[in-house]
Amino acid sequence: MTLNRPALALGNGPRGVHDARRWIAGGLREMGREDLVEAAEIGTSELVTNALLHGEAPISVTLGGTPEHPRVEVRDASRERPVLPTEPDPAAGHDSAGLDGLEGLDGLDDVLLTFGRGLGIVARAAQAWGADIDEDGKVVWFTPAAEIGEEEAVGTITGESGPSPASGDEQPTELVVEQVPVAAYLSFQRHYRELRREVRLLALAHEQEYPLAKTLSDLFGSLERVLRDDLGADQAERARAQGRPTTDLRVRLRKDDERRLERLSELLDLADAFCREERLLSVARTPEQESFQRWFLAEVLRQAAGEGAVAWETIASRPAAGPQGLPSARSSVS
Q1: Which one of 107, 128, 158 terminates a domain?
Q2: Among the listed residues 183, 311, 180, 176, the one whose alpha carbon sits nearest the alpha carbon of residue 243
Q3: What's the total number of domains in the chain?
Q4: Which of 66, 72, 82, 211 stands the most exposed, by the fewest C-beta atoms within 10 Å?
Q5: Tens digits of residue pLDDT in 211-229
Q6: Same domain assignment for residues 71 and 219
C-alpha cells in the first residue's frame, strides 16, 4: 500500500479516537517508523478528542511531512484558535458533562485516556506542533517524538494573517477566463492551500533538514493574494452556491504575478514528483487535476500576453501532458 494516503474521515462518536490511533499507527509501521508509534498514538488521542469535544464536523486525520519526519494532522471545520498549554484554558475544570454531545459509547476508554489534560500532552509527545487556521477550519498537527518527554515543545499558531499586499502601484491587467468548470477550479484552490500548508509546516518544524521548504513556503505565500483575491476565487464560490457548473472568471494580473504563476506551475510538478517518490506524504494530483491546472494557469498567462483564449472544452478530453522541464526530485527538499 502506498504511503501517500488520503485523509481518514472520522465519525462523531468517541470510536473515532480509536480509529484514528489505529490508522496512524498502521501508517507509521508501514513506513518503518515503529519508534514513533507510542508518542503518535497518545498525541493523536488528544487531538481527536479535542476535535470531537470542541471542534466542528467534518473531522479527519492524516499523515503529512516526510518518512523521515512524519506529521500527524487532525482537521476540523472550526476556525476557533486552540488554547496553547502556556495560555489559560477556558475548558479547565470541565467534568464528564462535556461528553454528553458524543454519539455512542464505543471507544469511550480512548477518550477518557486524555480527556481534561489539554494540549500539554501533545507538547510532550512532539518534536514540534501547532495549529494552522484557514478559511475551511483548522489543522492541529504534531511531529511525534521518539519518546514522551518531560519538557513541552512550544506550539505555534499559523495561517491567521491576511493575504499578502499587492506590490507597488502597478495597475493590473484585467481579463476574463470563460466557462471555467467550477468544481475543478475550487479543487485547484484547495490543492494549493493544502500544498502551501505542507511546505510551511515542513519549514516550521524542520527548516535545517529541508532548507528548500522555506523557499517554497515563501513563494507560495507571495501568491496568496493572487490566488485568493485576483484569480476569481470568490466568484467561483458564488457560482457554486448558485448551482452553476461553469462560470466566467474576471481576473487581474500584474507583471510580478505573471512570473510567480509561471514558477507555480513548475513547483506543482515538482511537488507531484516528491509525492510519487514518497518523499512527501501528501497525495499527488490526479491526471484530471493536473490537466485542468495546466490549462487554467496557461490560459491566464496567454491572455495577459495578449494571445487569444483557448477554451477548456476544447482540451478537456485530452490526457494530461507530462511535466515540461521538471527539475530532478533528487535536487529537492533535502
Answers
A1: 158
A2: 183
A3: 2
A4: 211
A5: 778 877 887 877 877 887 8
A6: no
The set of residues, in sequence order, having a beta carbon less than 8 Å from that of 204 and lying 6+ positions away, is: 128, 130, 156, 158
Q: Can you say whether the dihedral through the CA atoms of 312, 318, 320, 323 is positive or negative? A: negative
Q: In degrees rounded to 5, what are phi and psi of residue 250?
A: -90, 115
**Is the CA virtual torsion 304, 271, 191, 187 positive or negative?**
positive
**Grid coordinates standing for 246?**
461553469
* Cβ atoms of 233 and 215 closer than 8 Å: no
- DSSP secondary structure code for residue 168 in this structure: T
Task: Count Cβ atoms below 10 Å from residue 299 Cβ, excluding itself.
Answer: 22
Same domain, 227 and 187: yes
Question: Within a domain: residue 59?
Answer: yes
Contact 20, 40 (CB under 8 A): no
Could you tell me if residue 222 is inside a domain? yes
- Share of residues in the chain with pLDDT > 90 (%): 40
CATH number, position 70: 3.30.565.10
CA distance 225 to 268: 18
Q: Tell me the per-residue pLDDT of 272-297, one tens digit each, with 9 for 90 and over.
A: 888 888 888 888 899 999 999 999 99
Domain that includes residue 308, residue range: 173-331
- Phi-psi label, residue 48: left if phi above 0, alpha if psi -120 to 50, beta otherwise: alpha
What is the DSSP track for 245-284? SEEEEEEEE-HHHHHHHHHHHHHHHHHHHHHHTTSS-SPP
d(CA 156, CA 325): 36
Asked whether residue 212 is domain-assigned, the answer is yes
Do 115 and 248 lie in one domain? The reply is no
